[in-house]
Design a protein that fits this description.
single chain; disordered N terminus; 5-stranded antiparallel sheet; 4 helices; 161 residues; elongated; Thiol Ester Dehydrase, Chain A; alpha+beta
Length: 161
Amino acid sequence: MPIMPLMSCAGNELGGRGKLETIYIEDMIIGQKARYGQLVTLEQIQLFADASGDHNPVHLDEEFAATTPFQSRVAHGAMSTAFMSTVLGTKLPGLGTVLLGISNKFKAPVKLGEELIAEVEVAEIDLEKKRVRFECRCYVGDKVVTVGDALVIAPSRGHDG
């Protein structure tokens, strides 16, 4: 299924990188997708290390990383998870989403200079509980680097949880 067009919430910006979106649970369909991606830079990895407290040298020290199976610095695996959360919280479902859980398996490293794309796809919809389960994937090019799923409470026109 193609990536579905998203409705904009006027006046809501994503740190200068685009509009925040809201897709209400009543408008979601199985197979609906949304994506978010960025080029992975050393600055992002350093900021992520500072924010998370994970200063593992495999992420920050090229000399050390060269001695690992990766042979160079790699992004934190949790960066993939964060990108998935970005899609859920800003695009699909978007503004008002409550993330209940997310689970991932890391399939391949993400290296500096690679574009990391997170994609979420609606897998199950529970209108009564206002919960949606998503299948989640991250890509570098055509290669799947992370797979998982997420459960959210989705925004509803009814506004009751």
